Amino acid sequence: MKVGKDTVVSLAYELFDLDGNLIEKTSEPIGYLHGGYQGIFEMVEKSLDGKSVGDAVDVKLDPVEAFGDYNEGLVHLESTDKFPGSVEIGMEFEGHQEEGQAKTIFRVTDVADGKVVVDGNHPLAGLGLLFKCKIQDIRAASAEELSHGHVHGAGGHHH
Q1: What is the spatial distance between Cα 116 and Cα 78, in angstroms, rounded to a whole number?
Q2: Separation in Å, CA 130 to CA 17, 97, 118, 122, 145
Q3: Confidence of residue 97 (pLDDT cuts 50, 70, 90)
Q4: Distance between CA atoms of 72 and 16, rounded to whole angstroms?
Q5: Where are the domains of the chain?
Q6: Quick check: pTM over 0.90?
Q7: Whether residue 129 has pLDDT greater than 80
Q8: What class is the 72-119 domain?
Q9: pLDDT in tens, 4-19
Q10: Which among 18, 97, 121, 158 could disulfide-bond with 125, CB atoms 3.0 to 4.6 Å apart, if both were Cys?
Q11: Sequence-distant contacts of 64-70: CB under 8 A, at least 24 apart
Q12: Mean pLDDT estimate for the chain
């Protein structure tokens, strides 16, 4: 079987920055629904189309093709009294950029003198990346996976 629309593709992958530093590596294969379901970077999906089990691809991603450009407008300085309890670097909070907009996850990047810096950018925003992967398995997606637009794991996925 080849990778194509409405197949479930299992991959082992490594993600590097463009200086060759390893950012992330799978310990177990991950699966995604192939065919425009936004389960993986678009450029990676295009590179995998038509490939077979055992094939490997290396895809260089510009920031816009990965996690987007870094947006200074998503960095805010807030008073610590706007947060519940003690605030520490690395904590995450859900918030809104503008009324009616989707929720954004903000990470605390600094705490000092009663002020908190929160950043709504993805931690890898603004970085070019190298995505290296090898196809472990390919199968036809189930009707339920297709209707939900994502892969269901062993024993089924429960919403």
Answers
A1: 5
A2: 6, 30, 27, 17, 28
A3: low
A4: 24
A5: 7-67+125-148, 72-119
A6: no
A7: yes
A8: mainly beta
A9: 999 999 999 999 999 9
A10: 121
A11: 65/41, 66/41, 66/124, 66/127, 66/128, 66/129, 67/121, 67/122, 67/124, 67/125, 67/126, 67/127, 68/121, 68/122, 68/125, 68/126, 69/125, 69/126, 70/121, 70/125, 70/126
A12: 91
Q: Give residue 95's pLDDT.
A: 78
Please name the residues in contact with 145: beta carbons below 8 A apart, sequence gap of 6 or more.
8, 33, 151, 152
Q: Which CATH number fits domain 7-67+125-148: 3.10.50.40, 3.30.930.10, 1.10.260.40, 3.40.50.2300?
A: 3.10.50.40
Which amino acid belongs to residue 74? Answer: L
